[in-house]
Amino acid sequence: AYFRFTDTDGLPRFVIQLVEPAKIDHARRILAGKEKSRIHLNGTIVKAPAAYNPGWRYHLDPRSIDFFEFAVEVCDASIQYVEEHLDEVGGEKWRELLIRGGFPLSLLSDSDAHADEWRQLLRRNFLDP
Predict the structure, then answer these.
(1) Distance in angstroms (rounded) separating the CA atoms of residues 77 and 13
(2) Please, are residues 14 and 57 in contact by the beta-carbon 8 Å criterion?
(3) What is the mean pLDDT of residues 32-42?
């Protein structure tokens, strides 16, 4: 499952992939307002772009992502700060807030029509025989 999240200031957007059912459920509880304490996330930074997270030179390793309530300062960085200092990153963890989940590029689309177009391409390329 894919989830789009942001810094506490609301910008910029970043997409993560969760692969473990318990973590997917946890993220959905955050989005539904049922989880109020462990709402931040961290994970190992991979210095490579991911197709589901366009516009960024890095992504979080899906198997490393977890949720927490508090973190030490060294693990706290904004999305943009990491992007601007990527050469300094050595696997540190960081935190952000989830804002909504779904298919990756459809979330980033500027209109419902573009989101539908992306979902049709996904179905045609990966799901249809």
Answers:
(1) 14
(2) no
(3) 88
Contact (Cβ atoms closer than 8 angstroms) between residue 65 and residue 45: no
d(CA 56, CA 15): 10
Q: What is the DSSP string of 48-104?
A: S--TTSTT-S-EE-TTT-EEES---GGG---HHHHHHTGGG-SS-----EEEEEE-H
Q: Which run of H or of E encompasses 3? A: strand 2-6
Contacts of 27 (CB under 8 A, 6+ apart): 1, 3, 18, 67, 98, 101
pLDDT at 1: 94
More confident residue, 102 or 61: 61
pLDDT band with cut points at 50, 70 and 90 for residue 98: very low
pTM over 0.85: no
Give the C-alpha distances (Å, rounded to integers) separating 86 from 45, 101, 107: 9, 25, 25
Which SS3 state, helix, strand or coil, does residue 14 take? strand
Q: Does the pLDDT value for residue 75 go beyond 60?
A: no
Q: Measure the CA–CA gap between 100 and 87, rounded to whole angstroms.
A: 29
